[in-house]
Write a structure and sequence with these properties.
single chain; alpha/beta; binds 2-amino-2-deoxy-6-O-phosphono-alpha-D-glucopyranose; 251 residues; three-stranded antiparallel sheet; seven-stranded parallel sheet; Rossmann fold
């Protein structure tokens, strides 16, 4: 089932997403959270950090598995996804860093690292809640449009559109790593619940393709149509194409 919540703007989307994540932690304080990077979840992570600071929420027993990491970036590089997670969430909440997992972008044998990561996520029983952003080209994690879906964690060559989109975080497009390690759709689909968040007009086409288009590896997020517990929280602008097509949304 897919439930779509429409919010007025990015801030409201962030609060709603944070509440859904908090509800998961209240339900099971030792849950496994699948976490995402990118600009979209920053606001939700900030709300979660505030809840923890106020004493309303604790991540003490939470375990986390992140979707992806740039190949070749050290955890200390300010654009690595490990750094992002510490900067935006882990350093502001009471999570035990030993319980947080991000693929190792510096692994000498990237294939072995992918295998290790798949086994790790499986050993944790997969995510109870997997948070996802959405690429402009429909990617989830770094599962780029392709002629097939890849189930396992794998090394991926980034699409030029992804390199261009992420160049804003680097000094120049040349500095964006060309490859990444990403969870495949197997681990994502094995999550008990999926929470996809999107904001802004720039995501309207991808969101429409993901949930109203055919299920195709050309739009990796479209595979979520086959998941039985997906919640989408997106603002009006991101949902504009779906609502124009008459898709029902909750407020
Ligand atoms: C990045 C990440 C994705 C993210 C997406 C959208 O490259 N690998 O996990 O969802 O692109 O990013 P943003 O939220 O900045 O639009």
């Amino acid at each position: 089932m897919i439930r779509i919540y429409q919010t007025a703007d990015y801030e409201a989307m962030s609060r709603r997403a944070a509440h859904i994540i908090a509800a998961e932690v209240y339900r099971n304080p030792a849950c496994v959270l699948g976490l995402a990077t990118g600009s979209t979840p920053v606001g939700a992570y900030k709300c979660l950090s505030e809840m923890v600071a106020k004493g309303d929420l604790s991540f003490k027993e939470v375990k986390s598995v992140n979707l992806d990491e740039y190949k070749g970036l050290a955890p200390t590089h300010d654009q690595s996804y490990r750094y992002f997670m510490e900067d935006n969430l882990f350093n502001h909440v009471d999570i035990d860093l030993a319980n947080t997992n991000v693929p190792n972008g510096l692994a000498e044998d990237a294939e072995a690292e992918c295998k290790r990561y798949d086994e790790l996520v499986a050993s944790l029983g997969y995510a109870d809640l997997q948070l996802l952003g959405l690429g402009h080209n429909g990617h989830i994690g770094f599962n780029e449009p392709d002629d097939h879906f890849t189930k396992e964690t794998h090394v991926v060559s980034l699409a030029q559109s992804t390199i261009d989109a992420n160049a804003r975080f680097f000094a120049s497009a040349d500095e964006v790593p060309r490859q990444a390690l990403t969870m495949g759709v197997g681990c994502i689909m094995a999550a008990r619940r999926v929470l996809l968040i999107a904001s802004g007009e720039g995501k309207a086409d991808a969101l429409y393709a993901a949930f109203c288009g055919p299920i195709t590896p050309e739009c990796p997020a479209s595979i979520l149509q086959l998941h039985n517990d997906v919640v989408v929280v997106a603002d009006k602008a991101a949902l504009s194409k779906l609502t124009a097509a008459g898709v029902a949304v909750c407020e």
